[in-house]
Specification:
Layout (H helix, E strand, L loop, with lengths): L47 E3 L3 E4 L19 H12 E3 L5 E14 L2 E13 L5 E14 L8 H24 L27
Parallel strand pairs: 1-3, 2-4
Antiparallel strand pairs: 4-5, 5-6
Helix pairs in contact: 1-2
Length: 203
């Protein structure tokens, strides 16, 4: 699979989401606080409604390397990415399909370092099954030093990297696939249809 460019930090300013303001690249060591309460989920964010009849989260599972400890986490990186897709992507059309595929979902532990590596792809297909567009998004974070060995570090690192991925994912969708999004009205519902012209009676 071809490499996906890492997200640029300035893109956060374009998405006014209540997420952690941190760089998606490798970061310097910082104190690890307690984990935020609750599971990793995105139902509190604005959904992304597509002009398709079906949104599919493909069952593809990336091959785990020998140093990947992601399967020990709850949720695993794979499960967290699937949750993001199910919480944010909505089918709001009558034909076509959106297909979400996970290309990378790893928590790699080496000597004194943890690396969280996430990558995904969203493909849009029309009613005939022909590809009409796609986006890719990726995020990466690291922890090193003594904190990398703390039990809660991997779970916190996954949460932070998922926040990065979620921001980049929406940015790429709104940049590349905006024509496939259902436009929302000011009250948050689907945009109303065009106003029909009507002749007023003469007085």
């Amino acid at each position: 699979m071809r490499a996906v460019p890492e997200p640029m930090p300035h893109r956060r300013a374009l998405l006014l989401l209540p997420l952690l303001a941190a760089c998606a690249g490798e970061e310097a060591a910082s104190p690890v606080a307690g984990l935020p309460p609750g599971p990793i989920e995105y139902k509190h964010l604005t959904p992304l409604p597509f002009k398709v009849a079906v949104v599919e989260v493909t069952p593809t599972v990336p091959v785990a390397g020998p140093d990947d400890i992601g399967a020990r986490l709850r949720p695993t990186p794979l499960d967290a990415m699937r949750t993001m897709a199910r919480d944010r992507l909505v089918a709001a059309g009558t034909t076509g399909q959106a297909s979400f595929t996970i290309g990378q979902a790893a928590m790699v532990q080496t000597a004194g370092t943890l690396h969280c590596l996430l990558g995904c792809r969203l493909d849009i297909f029309d009613a005939e099954g022909q590809p009409r567009g796609h986006i890719e998004a990726a995020a990466r974070r690291s922890r090193s030093g003594a904190q990398a060995d703390r039990p809660e570090t991997a779970a916190l690192l996954l949460r932070e990297t998922m926040d990065d991925l979620n921001v980049e994912f929406e940015f790429q969708i709104r940049r590349v696939l905006k024509d496939w999004l259902v436009q929302a009205s000011p009250d948050g519902g689907a945009a109303p249809g065009p106003v029909e012209k009507e002749e007023l009676p003469r007085s």
